[in-house]
Design brief:
This protein has one domain: SGNH hydrolase (Rossmann fold, 3-Layer(aba) Sandwich), CATH 3.40.50. Helix content is 45%, strand content 7%. The protein is mainly alpha-helical and 168 residues long. The protein has a three-stranded parallel sheet, sandwiched between helices. The model has no long low-confidence stretch (mean pLDDT 83).
């Protein structure tokens, strides 16, 4: 199946799957999301795997973003809706016995009600947000798969933009 067996697989899905309102073309139902997560993780049964839950959404910033970029006055992501996807990701990871990097919980605990430092538009990470996510994934590797040397890990997957181009 693999040209080269991966050292570690990190599955980070959910922020787009939980889209609502005018971004429904991205949306995936919770049932389909769970099924997809299980299928992806099952493809790599004999490989260390980590699930990263989607982070929380800052709705007020998503409203601002929608107003600036579209004709909509409503957010394309909702906090409570995204939280359901985070819960499913965590549940699937735990049930399948893989590492779970709970980004939703980590950012909630850091933000103290104001997460704007960690996101540029209520969805995408700022530089500080990327640092927090990196630290979380590294902690999860160390805790769950201490024999994996993260310093030698290479990215061997298409980036989001590359996938989007193939699907248009």
């Amino acid at each position: 199946m693999f040209v080269k067996k991966p050292t570690l697989v990190v599955v980070f899905l959910g922020a787009n799957d939980a889209a609502v309102n005018h971004k429904r073309e991205y949306a995936v139902s919770l049932d389909e999301y769970e099924k997809n997560m299980r299928a992806i993780l099952s493809m790599y049964k004999n490989v260390p795997r980590i699930v990263v839950t989607p982070p929380p959404i800052i709705e007020k910033d998503r409203v601002r973003h929608a107003r600036e970029t579209t004709a909509f006055n409503m957010p394309d992501r909702l906090y409570q809706h995204t939280e359901k996807y985070a819960d499913v990701a965590e549940k699937v990871g735990r049930e399948m016995g893989v590492g779970v990097a709970d980004a939703f919980d980590r950012f909630e605990k850091l933000g103290g009600g104001d997460l704007s430092e960690y996101f540029t538009d209520g969805l995408h990470f700022s530089e500080r947000g990327e640092e927090v996510l990196f630290e979380l994934v590294m902690e999860t590797i160390k805790h769950t798969y201490p024999w994996v040397s993260w310093e030698r890990l290479n990215l061997d997957a298409p980036l989001h933009g590359e996938l989007a181009e193939k699907n248009t």
